[in-house]
Design goal:
Shape: flat
Order of helices and strands: HHHEHEEEHEEHEEEEEHEHEEEHEEEEH
CATH topology of the largest domain: 2-enoyl-CoA Hydratase, Chain A, domain 1
Structural class: alpha+beta
Radius of gyration: 32 Å
Helix content: 25-40%
Number of domains: 2
Largest sheet: 6 strands, mixed
Number of strands: 19
Distance between the termini: 122 Å
Number of helices: 10
CATH architecture of the largest domain: Alpha-Beta Complex
């Protein structure tokens, strides 16, 4: 009798297990969303796949969905990335606006710098610029720009895009000010009229007052912008008037910029010859040549370069070096010698497309190799000391 009870219990347990298994197996059949089987699409009809994915994400994605513009930008960026070239890329409108301002060397703004702190973003107005003239003080914490809240997690680029605009237009800033004498902070509103703010790309001065180097003109160049060639002319004129007869052109950390400006600036130091060779994938080549006349004929010149000297910096350095016009001091340059076409799209975004390669006048390749200095300087050592030491050598070589 006991044996029958045990068998009955085991049978009942077995039935329960079967029921559970059947339940788990049947659950997807009863509760799952229908699975869509997509018909394979020929390569020529790849856009049909794109729209199918778009629709499926619309229907099935759980969570916050990006808007149509964000999706489109993501799709474009992904497509461009598939070309496998780091210099062929898509830029969304806001970053492109900042890039355009940087290359122009000017922008519509309020004339203030931003400082990120634990408390938030602080403003520091520049003297005699719109922000200072409106009454904003150094250390005022920026709370809003035209009603848009400024948070501590925002990037400086995001804030700059909000603050900048057409010269003559107005922007309203809400700031928090803590009195220097202490006490409660107060909230203030300022309406600032934007002005054209120039951003110099070159700083210049006589190197120092040492009698041995008092005739050395020093030029610190940060980017090849639309203003750079005019700034170089002004710099040489002022330095010559101050007594400069030798020059150090510092291109450390200069990432490049505009091709036409690089050619124009190399031409300022050359009388003749090829400045640059542009080689295209179809085998065609185009030469850019110098025109007669120099800013400082026969004046000794050295260029200081490093791993941050790229693109237009390497064009100038390669041209002047190949023509024995200048020696290179420092460390190996970056090695970016490709040509990008910049296509401005309808919504102010842009597409950068590599379509050629730059070669130095003697045909040396820059891409992936860079330029090797005549006088290498170890990391941590002062390249200016080596540059000064090299100047007499340049003078001797050009006699």
């Amino acid at each position: 009798m006991a044996g029958r009870r045990i068998l009955a219990a085991l049978a009942a347990m077995f039935m329960v297990v079967l029921a559970l298994i059947a339940g788990y197996a049947a659950y997807p059949l009863i509760h799952a969303q229908p699975v869509t089987v997509l018909a394979p699409q020929p390569a020529a009809d790849a856009m049909a796949n794109y729209w199918q994915v778009w629709s499926l994400l619309d229907r099935d994605f759980y969570g916050t969905k990006p808007d149509d513009v964000q999706r489109t930008y993501g799709a474009i960026a992904g497509m461009v990335q598939r070309f496998g070239d780091p210099y062929t890329y898509f830029v969304e409108p806001q970053p492109r606006e900042l890039e355009r301002d940087q290359l122009a060397g000017k922008f519509g703004g309020i004339g203030a710098t931003l400082e990120q702190t634990a408390a938030g973003w602080l403003l520091h107005p520049l003297p005699a610029q719109p922000a200072a003239q409106a009454g904003i003080l150094a250390g005022d914490r920026l709370l809003e720009v035209d009603g848009a809240s400024i948070t501590a997690t925002m990037s400086s680029e995001e804030i700059v895009v909000l603050v900048r605009g057409e010269p003559g237009s107005q922007v309203t800033l809400l700031v928090e000010r803590t009195p220097a004498s202490g006490g409660a902070a107060e909230t203030l509103t300022f309406t600032v009229t934007r002005a054209e703010i120039e951003t110099p790309s070159i700083e210049w001065r006589l190197l120092d007052e040492n009698p041995q180097t008092a005739d050395v003109g020093y030029l610190r160049h940060t980017i090849f912008s639309e203003r750079s060639a005019a700034e170089m002319r002004q710099a040489i004129e002022e330095l010559q008037a101050a007594g400069a007869t030798r020059y150090i052109w510092d291109l450390r950390g200069n990432p490049g910029g505009l091709l036409n400006i690089a050619v124009e600036m190399a031409d300022l130091w050359l009388d003749e010859g090829v400045i640059l060779i542009e080689a295209k994938a179809d085998g065609t080549r185009k030469e850019f040549t110098a025109t007669p006349g120099q800013l400082a004929a026969n004046a000794p010149l050295v260029l200081v370069v490093d791993g941050g000297s790229a693109s237009a910096s390497e064009i100038v350095a390669g041209a002047l070096h190949d023509h024995d016009r200048a020696r290179l001091i420092g460390s190996q340059t970056f090695g970016k010698g490709s040509v990008q076409l910049i296509h401005e799209l309808g919504d102010s975004s842009s597409l950068h497309v590599t379509n050629a390669e730059w070669l130095t006048p003697t045909g040396r390749q820059i891409s992936g190799q860079g330029l090797t200095p005549d006088v290498p300087v170890a990391e941590g050592d002062d390249p200016l000391a080596a540059a000064i030491a090299a100047l007499p050598l340049v003078q001797e070589a050009r006699k």
